[in-house]
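Annex B, item 7. Sequence and structure tokens for protein A, then protein B.
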Amino acid sequence: MQSGIEGKVAFITGSASGIGRTVALTLAKEGSKIAVADLNEEGAKEVVDLIDQRHGGNSAIVCGVDVSKKKSVEDAVKKAVKSFGKLDILVNCAGIYRPWEFLDVIEEDWDAVMNINLKGTFLCSVIAGKEMVKQKSGAVVNIASIGGVLPLINAGAYGPSKAGVVSLTQQLAVEWAKHNVRVNSVSPGTTNTPMNALEFRDRDVYERHVSGIPLGRIAEPKEIANVITFLVSDLASYVTGQNIIVDGGAILRAFQTQWTSVESLKKMR
């Protein structure tokens, strides 16, 4: 069965680096035209140049965007549609992480995380979604996190913002199904991205992360991109409203730890 990705137009936020960059390169390899949407236009240009080198000119464009600003998103989406004539795929990868204990979270950090992670996903989904609803087809994938399913200690507003992304995904999936627009989310576990690179320079921190993952390693961006590629393809034509957890089994270990803790308490009685 053909994936149906070839010839599709994909608008990918946060695609100058990390998971978003890998998604852009992966979908381009599958034959999609790519709108590399990012606030970092210099980084986005590097991704566009790489795509054009590998797949020929006019395969990708830079769409500078601040996903927390409605006008900026509208302008970026209009540029993509004007350049390629349509919009078939949206992948919301833009996100930030500001770790704090909750009693130390300041309002500015809360607002910044929510504005990018949740509001940004909302704005991009609705503005790009209008194009998909108009053409009666499309696929949206939102990047959530295992922190939106189980609490991450000292992660500040990050977990709540990603829980909101999961809920938003389900809401849009229900409302847009009648327009043949599918909406899903992917919740990665710990992944080898620039956002995590600084923290992982500390070997002890890295080992603590790995110790909580049954597969014994952190994810590579390509492993997350592969799941996203499936979800936006025709192979997932009957999949909508789902949150796919890609964490190497980390959530299973979390439940295992809780169970062990309960057993320990029983022994203390």
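Protein B:
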Amino acid sequence: MNSPTTGKSEPFALVGLPVERSRDKPRAQGHTMMIDWGIPLLRQRDILEMAGRYIDFAKIAVGTSRFYDETYLTAKLDLYKAHGVRPFLGGQFQEYMFATQGAQALRPFLEEALRLGFEVVEVSDNVIPLTDEERSEQIRLAVDVGLTVLGEVGSKSEQSSADVLISQGNQAFEAGAELVLIEGAELIENGVINSDMLGAFQQGLDMTRVMIELPGPWVPDTSLSQIHDLKKALIRLFGADVNLANIMPDDIIETESLRCGLGVVGPQRGN
């Protein structure tokens, strides 16, 4: 049987998929952001051929884009775009520029990103704290340069209150961010998922425009089981079309199966 969205034959087409899961790109919500720590071009092509329809954004993590030959980097960006995936600069690269060269270096940095073919950048303060004014100024600057902004809030090393993160997220929207990313490390405290904070986000933010980043092994005392449990909890709370970020390349298909109830989230017997 052919899929109405892909026009290709799909295996086990007798198994229905949830109607609330967005399958057409570009999606209004239900985004999956994959993290790219240095995927070689041929492996990138394989990933996209297999799972590109389930990937909406690709983060070129931290400052890794500095280490490619320019032609190789632009080929990576072009390949993502050819599959309807929006590549973007990880926010810690801009944090590094701000910390080492100051605010005056940000416009040339962002103009270089645009020249290379980036259309989206992340503005974050994972490592270098920003005031509310600095965050808004950096978002507005990137928009002025001609870039789309993903504004990230939250810390990898300190716990913030839900009220602070909600306030920062709404400020990012007001400054012009298309989406707001929430650092997933904020959602796990002493190995336990902070359900109260997730509930507060649901009340205080437009979750169709919020992408929750999963923590990774780069966050101290974070286990793979905690990451997986958080992903399941987010899907249970917000549904199949929750926006998820920092998905590892090998986990794209697995994540889609969780979204659709065919992974370990699974339907209950009799449902």
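Comment on protein B: The chain has one domain: 32-258.
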